[in-house]
């Protein structure tokens, strides 16, 4: 196996979304709904976790969207430890605050976000 020259390695660098890019995807997903920031974490590379919660609808539980950047977060103590791709997930909670389902709603492909139908 031979090593790529430095100029080719730069072209392979992973795009790291900015806070504004992630906010734009959140806005595409939730429209003009208001939200509460649950957690927003960054490191030397920028934003790696952002969780937002939509207001509860009476008797229906709540919805949370979470952005996480591809990487290994074992040393940061995040559940699961490592993430294979940069994505945004939705989680549905019942009226008692217990998660009942969830799935990926957007993935980063190169430097473009793909919204999951």
Can you describe this structure?
With 117 residues, the protein is of the alpha+beta class. 15% of the residues lie in helices and 43% in strands. It has one domain (6-115). Strand 7 (99-109) and strand 8 form a beta hairpin. Residues 1-11 have low confidence and may be disordered.
Succession of helices and strands: HHEEEEEEEE
Q: Which band does the percent of strand residues land in?
A: 35-45%
Task: Note the main sheet.
Answer: 6 strands, antiparallel
What distance lies between the first and last C-alpha atoms, to the nearest angstrom?
39 Å
- Which outline best applies? globular
Unreliable spans: 1-11
Structural class from helices and strands?
A: alpha+beta
Q: Count of DSSP helices? A: 2
**Number of domain modules:** 1
Computed Rg: 16 Å
Number of strand elements: 8
On the 0-100 scale, what is the average pLDDT? 85
**Strands across the major sheet, in which order?**
1-2-3-6-7-8
| Share in helix | 10-25%
């Amino acid at each position: 196996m031979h090593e790529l020259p430095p100029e080719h390695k730069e072209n392979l660098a992973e795009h790291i979304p900015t806070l504004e890019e992630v906010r734009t995807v959140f806005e595409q997903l939730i429209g003009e709904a208001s939200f509460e920031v649950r957690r927003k974490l960054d490191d030397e590379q920028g934003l790696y976790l952002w969780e937002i919660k939509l207001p509860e609808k009476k008797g229906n539980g709540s919805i949370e969207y979470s952005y996480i950047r591809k990487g290994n977060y074992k040393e940061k103590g995040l559940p699961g430890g490592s993430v294979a791709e940069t994505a945004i997930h939705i989680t549905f909670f019942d009226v008692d605050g217990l998660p009942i389902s969830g799935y990926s709603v957007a993935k980063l492909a190169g430097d473009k976000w793909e919204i999951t139908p």
